[in-house]
Design a protein that fits this description.
mainly beta; 10 strands; single chain
């Protein structure tokens, strides 16, 4: 099984499956009760798979486009993945039932940047 979590710019996956994130690092989104979530960039040159759970064994739901930014709602331990930002077992929840390997997200830290998913 191929455990690669991203594809490079030469990928041939349909653009119709791709979505983008926020345009600026300082962008924040209000999430109930005044909480705000920062946006984090996906590693440059990568189209990252969004999966239904914290492992490459879960189905790919969609693929993030080049230059995407994501908001991390919570983080979960899962399969170890190596990416441009190191090797990690942390998976970022970017929406209901949507996870990306933290090794492809520039959070500025090697560990958790928010609470663990319940």
């Amino acid at each position: 099984m191929d455990t690669t979590e991203s594809t490079t710019e030469s990928t041939t996956e349909s653009a119709a499956k791709n979505t983008t994130g926020s345009a600026t690092e300082s962008a924040v989104v209000s999430q109930g009760a005044g909480a705000e979530l920062p946006s984090y960039p996906i590693a440059p040159g990568y189209r990252v798979n969004v999966r239904s759970g914290p492992s490459t064994k879960y189905a790919v739901i969609r693929t993030l486009t080049l230059g995407s930014w994501v908001q991390i709602y919570c983080q979960a331990p899962g399969e170890w993945v190596t990416g441009p930002y190191g090797t990690s077992c942390i998976w970022d929840n970017i929406g209901p039932g949507q996870f990306v390997a933290d090794a492809y997200v520039k959070t500025g830290r090697d560990g958790y940047v928010t609470h663990r998913c319940a």
